[in-house]
Amino acid sequence: MAFPEDVLTEDEHVVLHLHPHWKALIRPVAVLVFAIAAVAAGVLFLPSGGGGSITLAVIGGLAVLAVLLLSAWPYISWRTTHYLFTNERVVLQHGVFSRERRDIPLSRVNDHSMNQQFIGRLLGYGTLTIESAGERGQSVLPDVPKVDRVQTKLYELVEAFHDKHSLGDGELREILAERDNKI
């Protein structure tokens, strides 16, 4: 479930690869613990044979169903959600059976902001909003771990990209001088 490296261009490299904050796994782990506890309690306290076996089978079946729907699925969904920051773009990808990916070139990033609620500050996550030129406009990345550092890194990436792809004063003068010499 790692992010495939073949989606990167030749000169592109990954700077940050993140999944949503681990808080998304609190409920799935709690459901798993509760399901195990329910089955263990059934084994320990229900009478063997007859109605006890049927009740234990029902408890076991419900526990398996709860684990699949409320633990395994959220975990797989969490693992297949990627926030990828490269030296050329931001890639947002999610999906288990079908996949959705959005690429935001750093050249189109107009603005970015972050928001942290009180619990998010305590646990170290927040929401990062990236404003980009184009039809879709805003991309909201919920539950980004260490969102303040990620926003700072995004700022650095955007600035480095613009510096790399823009002309400095000296370069512009040289180009204009060459053009004037040709005329």
Report on the structure:
With 183 residues, this protein is of the alpha+beta class. Helices cover 48% and strands 25% of the residues. The chain contains five helices and seven strands, in the order βααββββαββαα. Strand 6 (125-132) and strand 7 (138-145) form a beta hairpin. The longest helix is centred in the middle third of the chain and has 29 residues, at 51-79. The termini are far apart. The model has no long low-confidence stretch (mean pLDDT 89).
Provide keyphrases for this structure.
183 residues; alpha+beta; 4-stranded antiparallel β-sheet; 3-stranded antiparallel β-sheet; elongated
Quick overview:
The chain has 183 residues and is an alpha+beta fold.
Per-chain topology:
Layout: E1 14-18, H1 26-45, H2 51-79, E2 82-86, E3 89-94, E4 100-105, E5 109-115, H3 118-123, E6 125-132, E7 138-145, H4 147-164, H5 169-182
Antiparallel strand pairs: 1-2, 2-3, 3-4, 5-6, 6-7
Largest sheet geometry: 4 strands, antiparallel
User: How many helices does DSSP assign?
Assistant: 5
Order of SSEs:
EHHEEEEHEEHH
| Overall spatial form | elongated
Helical content (DSSP H or I, runs of 4+): 40-55%
Radius of gyration: 25 Å
